[in-house]
Structure formats: C-alpha cells, structure tokens
Structure prediction request, 229 residues.
Amino acid sequence: MARLARLTVPGYPHHIIQRGNNRQPIFADDDDRRLLLKLVEQNAKEQGVAVHAYVLMDNHVHLLATPETGTGVPRLLQAIGRRYVRHFNDRHGRTGTLFEGRYKSTLVQADRYLLACMVYMDLNPVRAGIVASAADWPWSSHRHYVGTLPDRLVTPHPLYWALGNTPFAREQAYADLVAAGIAKDTRDLLTDATFRGWAAGDAQFLAHLGEHAPRRPSPKSAGRPRKLV
Prediction:
C-alpha cells in the first residue's frame, strides 16, 4: 500500500514528533540539546514557522508549530536533521543514521486541542518518570509560559494570549491547566493522530479542512453494513 503523504496546511498548528532510530538516544549531553534548540530557532525563522511549544526527551523531540507555507514544516525538519546529525556524529565519533526515517505529525484544531497539546507535551517528562513536575524539566517551553524563564524560540499562539489580560493572569491560567493534567482519551487521541498522520479535530473541523487540504485529513468512514437477506 502506498505510503500516506504528510498532511501539512499553512496557517494551522501542527504537532510534530521526531524520534531516534530504534528509539536510541538523540542527545548525549546538554550541549547537544542546546545546539538542537538553536537549529530549531534559526531554521524556523528561515522557513516561516512559528514554534509555539517544544519538549526535548532523551530519544525524541516534540514541536508544536504553525507554518506560513505548505513547505515550512518539512523543510524545517530536513534542515535540522541534516545539520544536527552531522554535528552529533562528528562530536561523538559515530556514523550512520540518528533519526527515524520520517518524522510524525498531525494537524491540530486549535480551539479544541492546541492548549491540550501543549499540556500533553509539558507533562511528557513527568509521565516518563524523569521529573516530579513540568517546571522541573529545563528542556521544554513550559517555563516560558509560566513566566519563570523567557525563551526567544517560542511564539505564543493567540489562544495563549486569550488566557488572561495580564502576563501574570496568563501565566497562572496556563500553570493551572498543566496542574489539572490532560484526560487519557485526549492524550491517546493526540498520540494516535500524530503517529497515523490524520488531523486531530471534530467532524465540522475535519469537513472544513478537507476542502483545503492536499489530501484527506481523516480516514474514510466505514461503509454502511450490508443488509442480511
């Protein structure tokens, strides 16, 4: 069966996951992490991609980003992969591939899932048992949104600005969202949509998106059951 083309539509937020090949670590130390974030910042600007949130795990990376063009996301990931892998291999005396062949991504209905996706990403290190709270993990955009460490890589989405009329109100509202956590069904939906390549949204959103997307944003519904005679 032909491989499903990635769904990339300008102006919509995309949840992106890039994993290490065979789930191997993609960072050896904090210098590697700092370089990857620098590459994301540089290439996102060049490709017209607004990065709303991120988290670096030991063997994978999450990004939540909105591209200005249909080529912004793939070109961003291609540029990062090419430069980072060369650096990593040279620095650590290795050869061969580092990342899994294809990054995974899904297009997200902003008003329904964008903030939930940010919370999902922030809590990844907590679910993995690395830290006790999202604020304890230095390699995510969480601290930017709760006001403890500004991050020039991050471009807040308008839905974040709508959380409050002052910086403190927004920061507290977002911290409360993270403290409340994310429902398992929402987490599972975002995970499944990202790895399968289908958009995450309600029926109305998917129908509207289908009129503009380069391919179907969701699987075909099953046909009507056959009548028994």
